[in-house]
Amino acid sequence: MVRAIAYRLQERALGGLSAAARRVLAQAAEDGAAGRPVQGKPTRQVKPGARLLREWHGVTHEAIILDDGVLFRGQRYRSLSEVACIITSSRWSGPKFFGLNGVSKGRAS
To answer: Where do the structural domains in the chain lie, given as residue ranges?
Structure first.
């Protein structure tokens, strides 16, 4: 009950769910009620050969997506997160760092 009240207060202060979020929830409820599997969050798939560019501290970094990992500075890495860690010297979500999670920090070509 406390969580429901807290949510309602937050909703009043900051606004409710976006129209897109309401549509996703309505579709999930409809799928569940109909006995269909409920779809998870859609993920953005990057195809092999895609070049991801990201500027970090004035330097543009390029990562090329491979079938089995990522090519960065002539070396293969298992994930974008490994590459992001090398670039920033801290732990990052690779997809987030390169702008694949809806945050347009990087560009895919």
So the answer is: 2-33, 51-108
